[in-house]
Amino acid sequence: MAQAASKTCEICVSGPGPNYCEQCDQLFCDGCKISHLRAKISKNHSFLSGPNINPEVKQYCKEHDENFIYYCKECNMPICKICVIEKHKSHDFAEINESTEGIKNEVKIVIDMKMRNLQSKIAVIDQGTHTYQADVQKVIQAIKEEGRHLKEMIDKKVEGLINTVKEKDRRNVQTLQSVGNELKTALDKAKEQQKFYQDTEGIKDTTKLLQKLKQIKSQIDQIEEIQIPIMPSVKYVEKTVAEG
């Protein structure tokens, strides 16, 4: 439940949360509010804003003072038995516990798939970096072997070639590490949502659990897909040098 005393965004937990979502019963900062309203599942949510907001737990239908017992799949909202008759009679709806369990399983699948995908990409980056740097060392060794048989003037050329390879190595590895860090950051975000998901085991109220699961799913969907760059390669072609 959103706690008015903390006034901290319950999504990013990094700034004040002056915006209260009436449907999700949570506090949002301005940035998280914008992201929330952009999401398809929550684009029609309504907010209260200001320093003195005092949200209360809504475990029942405010209009009919009845417990929520169904979930309307077309309107993406919990409804009471009177709402079914008055506003959702022709809609597709299910018992709220059943819908919550379905979304719970869906969120778990999305988290697991996202984490497997990110871990797989990180493994590719790590392996590619290791292989590439091993190739770089082989090229440097080949250049050194050839350079030993040449005069001092050729030694300077050898040193220049090595420096060129190292500079390319530095830039390419920097690029690979940058992508790797992005993937690890995305994985951390997925782990964070996994922790939030695990914490839902202690939520007994199905309405609040449903809202929390929908929020976790929204956050997971916002983790951007990161493409792995083409792995760099390097090789050395030995040159034939005449005595002259």
In words, what does this structure look like?
It comes from Mytilus galloprovincialis (Mediterranean mussel). GO terms for molecular function: zinc ion binding. It holds the Pfam family zf-B_box. InterPro entries: TRIM45/56/19-like, Znf_B-box. The relative contact order is 0.12. A hairpin with a 4-residue loop joins strand 6 and strand 7. The N terminus is likely disordered. The protein is 54% helix and 9% strand. It folds into three domains: 56 residues, Cytoplasmic polyadenylation element-binding protein, ZZ domain (30s Ribosomal Protein S18, Irregular); 34 residues; 125 residues. With 244 residues, the protein is mostly helical. It contains five helices and eight strands.
What general outline do the C-alpha atoms trace?
Answer: elongated
The averaged pLDDT comes out at 83
**Termini separation:** 84 Å
The quaternary state of the protein chains shown equals: single chain
Poorly predicted runs are 1-5
What secondary-structure arrangement, pairings included, does this model have?
Blueprint: E1 19-21, E2 26-28, H1 30-38, E3 47-49, E4 60-61, E5 66-67, E6 70-72, E7 77-79, H2 81-86, E8 93-95, H3 96-147, H4 152-199, H5 206-221
Antiparallel strand pairs: 1-2, 1-3, 4-5, 6-7, 6-8
